[in-house]
UniProtKB/TrEMBL annotation:
Span within the parent record: 580 to 854 of 854
All copies of domain EAL, residue ranges: 24-275
Superkingdom assignment: Bacteria
This protein's name: EAL domain-containing protein
Length: 275
């Protein structure tokens, strides 16, 4: 009997494996056509200056409008794009589209607001990244100071010896760099000093329980002290309540992003926000 049960469990297990492998394969092959079929879209979420409630920047967030299945968020497909290498082409599309969009808004007479673009580790590992950024900046005509690139702490730490060189080339163009999801990776404070970084985005894991957790408040206080001494700006991610915002401001954090202010918006909703 025990043997039978074991076999059933095994059968169940392999069926589930096949199912998930099949799903993965299906997802990957649908993604292969997504770029050419124009199924990717950028949403934009504002970073807000708490004091004035003005828009400090707009972060471009990738969405996949999958035929018949609706909108798919990046957590569901970015890993597959990375694994397959497709992230290089999609990432370039994201960068170009965000720059084109920012220029188009400015030409409509809207206030000039920096646009932030997320880069994956795979893009960063390419030697040609700085050249790609330069080419896209030139071709779209965006003012370099209006472009920010976000890289996670983990990406920064894992990328190879050419990291500093690439960051310095990008920095020399006048494009700004932010560290995303700060606090979730393995951070080396020495790197923060060495790399030409302008901004830290504190991960929402530290914002979520700010009211209840003295530890999280201590972490925010420490990040603020560090950022002040290195002259970096700080954005708090995932701010959902006025109470969280209040605590962040008490710690000197004046830039915030989160559902309290706005969810990621479709591009056509942005002009109204900027006016
Ligand atoms: P991220 O760069 O840290 O972006 C912030 C994420 O937090 C977004 O999720 C946003 O919708 C979500 N968020 C914002 N405010 C709140 C809030 O108040 N509460 C909660 N619970 N969530 C909030 P999204 O759009 O699903 O993106 C997830 C991640 O996917 C991003 O995290 C980023 O790492 C990655 N990603 C998005 N677009 C791109 C892209 O174009 N390229 C690459 N390589 N990665 C991207
Ligand atoms: Mg980001
Ligand atoms: Mg983040
Ligand atoms: Mg994130």
């Amino acid at each position: 009997h025990a043997k039978g049960a074991g076999r059933n469990t095994w059968q169940f297990f392999t069926e589930r494996m096949n199912e998930s492998a099949a799903r993965h394969f299906e997802l990957e092959s649908s993604l292969r056509v997504a770029l050419a079929a124009n199924q990717f879209e950028l949403f934009y979420q504002p970073v807000i200056e708490a004091g004035t409630r003005r828009v400090h920047a707009l972060e471009a967030l990738l969405r996949w409008r999958r035929p018949g299945l609706g909108l798919v968020g990046p957590d569901e497909f970015i890993p597959i794009l990375e694994e397959s290498g497709m992230i290089i082409a999609v990432g370039e599309w994201v960068l170009r589209s965000a720059c084109e969009q920012a220029v188009a808004w400015q030409r409509q007479g809207l206030p000039a607001v920096p646009v932030a673009v997320n880069l994956s580790g795979r893009q960063f590992a390419q030697r040609g990244l700085a050249g790609t950024v330069r080419r896209i900046v030139e071709e779209t005509g965006i003012a370099p100071a209006l472009l920010e690139l976000e890289i996670t702490e983990t990406t920064l730490m894992q990328s190879g010896g050419h990291t500093l060189e690439v960051l310095e080339q990008i920095n020399a163009m006048g494009v700004r760099l932010s560290i995303d999801d700060f606090g979730t990776g393995y951070s080396s404070l020495a790197y923060l000093k060495r790399f030409p970084v302008h901004k830290i985005k504190v991960d929402r894991a530290f914002v979520r329980e700010l009211e209840a957790s003295a530890e999280d408040r201590a972490i925010v206080a420490a990040v603020m002290a560090l950022a002040n001494s290195l002259q970096l700006s700080v954005v708090a991610e995932g701010v959902e309540t006025e109470a969280q915002l209040q605590l962040l401001r008490e710690h000197g954090c004046e830039l915030a992003q989160g559902f309290l202010f706005a969810r990621p918006l479709e591009a056509h909703q942005v002009p109204e926000l900027l006016r």
